[in-house]
Amino acid sequence: MQQFMSQLQHLLSAPGSGPVNWDLARQVAASQLAAAGDPAVSPFERNAVEEALRIADLWLEPATSWPSGIRSSVAWNRNEWIFKTLDVWRKLCDPVASRMVGAMGDLVPPEARAQLGPMQSMVATLGGALFGGQLGQALGSLAAEVLSAGDIGLPLGPAGAAALVPANIKAYGEGLELPEDEVRLYVALREAAHQRLFQHVPWLRGHVLTAVENYAAGIRVNREAIEEAMGRVDPTDPESMQAIALEGIFTPEDTPAQKASLARLETVLALVEGWVCHVVDSAAGDRLPNVVRLGEAFRRRRAAGGPAEQTFAALVGLELRPRRLREATVLWAALTEQRGIAGRDAIWGHPDLLPSDDDFAAPEAFAAAGSDLDDELATFDFSAPGAPEEPTPGEGDDKS
Q: pTM (2 decimals)?
């Protein structure tokens, strides 16, 4: 019993505020990576990453209308990926976790809450620790799979920092049975393209993260699932608290507003990934011997999501897959053919100019309909509602 109380006290007293105990999440992720292995980045790998990103930026010059968006080129180990992206995960996960913690508190009968008094706060602390432990496991698994900072389509890392994860790139290349340097260069092309897009479209970072937040805001908590999970806690086994499976406790609200929110999220994720795929394949051209195979492998990878990404989706009720990636890629190719590179990229000038979900079905028609884009932009009222907003403090101005 003394050991139980000691472990329980450690679980509940781990520092952290808010609905998720992020310090505990980081500790769990680090512990998981230590057990699985987290190779340090060697000087050779660091130089190889910097060189790959430099070449990638050169190849992208004629394929886009924007200059480089890279302020710094870095190579991360798996722990560094977690540390550098944690601020964005906090922004995305806290609203969902808050509803889970609130639902746990609601399980306490109203007549018993007054009697609990200060103990009521322990419920929230326990909920934050449980969710932090589960998120730590999911992030630890993701860190073992991601290839770069922008690998899953969200602007997770510091603005302007192009980052690759050499250990994961090596493992992924071995799985494809392709040369490591060729896989590294293709990943560098994707990362450099992401940086150009998010650096030179100032409203996009906030737009993507807001789309994720709006969708998450409509997710409801399955109280029965929480009650069942809490019922599996063994008071004599503190480890059972960390082993609770929280997957499935969130279900999307089946309302018109939530469906529209999901459609907007899927559309913007597909447009971002489709633009990156089209630009990267155009830039690589015949320079990479296995560019077709690499392009197809990455499209399948992004469309299906890896095991860790699926675990994360089950945990927070949110999938980050661009379901209409292929259609979006075809649409950007049609825009390039019809309007040229500058005309294609001008579509990112304002969110209202982006293709809608319906436009995916008729890419040629959408591309042809905007032949007078210059006139449209010249008369567009950017001060009207819906115009690009100022970046959220702390976003887009990261100098690291």
A: 0.81
E-strand spans in the chain?
72-75, 161-164, 219-221, 250-252
Beta bridge partners of 161: 72
The C-alpha angle with vertex 208 and arms to 359 and 21, in degrees rounded to 5, equals: 145
CB 214 within 8 A of CB 318: no
Report whether 64 contacts 345 (CB < 8 A): yes
pLDDT digits (tens, 9 = 90+) for 210-252: 887 777 777 777 777 766 766 666 655 555 555 555 556 666 6
Other beta carbons less than 10 A from residue 371's beta carbon: 12
Between CA 389 and CA 397 the distance in angstroms is 14
CA distance between the termini of the chain: 47
* CA-wise closest residue to 197 among 71, 54, 68: 68
- List own/partner pairs for 152-155 with CB under 8 A and 24 or more apart: 152/309, 152/320, 153/269, 153/272, 153/273, 153/302, 153/320, 153/322, 154/88, 154/92, 154/208, 154/209, 154/212, 154/320, 155/88, 155/194, 155/198, 155/204, 155/205, 155/208, 155/209
| pLDDT tens, residue by residue, 99-119 | 766 666 665 566 555 655 555
Apex CA 202: angle with CA 198 and CA 207, to 5°?
80
Q: How far apart are CA 172 and CA 310, in angstroms?
A: 18
What is d(CA 79, CA 29) in angstroms, rounded to the nearest whole number?
8
**CA 210 to chain CA centroid, nearest Å:** 12
Contact between 342 and 65 under an 8 Å Cβ cutoff? The reply is yes
